[in-house]
Design brief:
The chain is α/β, with parallel strands linked by helices. It is 42% helix and 11% strand.
């Protein structure tokens, strides 16, 4: 016997719209207050531009949610897929850290609570596949698509404009042409000074520094790199990071065991947040040529240490993030 087609239910379109409003609220919050340091654990360990993740997220979430509000039957599949993706990312996040997932921008909502809400709305949308809304006409479909483009594009544009002022990252500089008569006399580099405009957060992505002079990387923006040795191994760390402490202790032991083979170390400390009251784990460090601390006037540096960055001839030649025990080598 052929299976009977599912019958429509008057609550079905409202069920889809409730889930869509949840997604739209998250997209609007990300656009208004989301920052790179709010991203879930999964994204923190990938060497991709976190501001692009936020902008793309607001675009997709806003577009799907607006489409679902206008054409709930047609938008059920992408809406369910989006909620399932949220749940998968949150499961990964919860298994690695108890920090907030930043799902609603800067709102400090516990990740398990967000996971429960996403699963509940996913179940609500899933129910509509048994009791679907009425069929969507072509006019409503077109209106939904246009609403999705308008809402998603508007949220993404706002997020991009806000983050471009709040987050500092790679600053590509155009080469300056030198007249032939002056080619043999290179101009003296300008004296280093702290930027006058301070962003809320600074992106530090060492893999993008490879091949560049150290002074032209974001590190050179916030620290005077003139005193750095021309050839050295830089270790980026937090004092509050026990994995960083373990690496520094291991390097110190290797240096003691074979001093001749040890590189010249430069220790680059990310400032401990003023609100942090926990233990400072770093006690033993290798002998080093320089120990610098990034300026604490910046609220946050977007980086998951420890990182090892090698310079040779004043240029970055190698960068590698040391994964934590039990962690996949993401970001290497």
């Amino acid at each position: 016997m052929p299976r009977a087609a599912p019958t429509n239910h008057p609550f079905a379109p409202h069920a889809v719209r409730l889930a869509a409003l949840w997604v739209l609220a998250g997209a609007a919050s990300k656009a208004a207050s989301g920052m790179p340091t709010d991203l879930p654990y999964f994204f923190a360990n990938l060497e991709i531009d976190p501001t692009s993740v936020i902008v793309a997220g607001t675009l997709v979430e806003g577009a799907v949610a607006a489409f679902a509000l206008v054409a709930p039957r047609a938008a059920r599949v992408p809406l369910a897929a989006l909620l399932a993706l949220f749940a998968a990312l949150l499961v990964h996040h919860v298994t690695h850290t108890d920090a907030s997932c930043g799902c609603f921008g800067g709102a400090k909502i516990p990740a398990p609570a967000m996971l429960g809400a996403d699963l509940a709305f996913l179940g609500l949308v899933g129910w509509t596949f048994r009791k679907p809304p009425a069929h969507t006409g072509a006019t409503r479909m077109l209106a939904g698509a246009l609403a999705g483009l308008a809402v998603g594009g508007g949220l993404a544009a706002y997020a991009n404009a806000r983050l471009s002022h709040a987050v500092a990252g790679e600053q590509p500089t155009a080469p300056v042409a030198t007249p032939p008569s002056q080619a043999a006399v290179p101009p003296a580099p300008p004296a280093w000074s702290m930027p006058t405009e301070l962003p809320e957060q600074v992106l530090l992505r060492p893999l993008t520094w490879i091949g560049k002079p150290l002074a032209q990387t974001p590190l050179g923006t916030w620290v005077d790199t003139a005193p750095f040795p021309a050839k050295a191994r830089m270790i980026f760390f937090y004092k509050s990071c026990n994995h960083c402490a373990a690496l520094l202790k291991e390097l110190a032991e290797q240096q003691t065991a074979d001093p001749a083979a040890a590189p010249t170390y430069v220790l680059v400390q990310l400032p401990t947040p003023a609100a942090y009251t926990g233990k400072l784990f770093v006690e033993t460090v290798p002998k080093h040529a320089l120990w610098v601390e990034l300026p604490s006037v910046i609220k946050a540096y977007v980086m998951t240490p420890p990182w090892i960055v090698d310079i040779d001839g004043g240029k970055v030649v190698h960068a590698e993030r040391v994964p934590w025990p039990g962690e996949k080598a993401a970001g290497k």
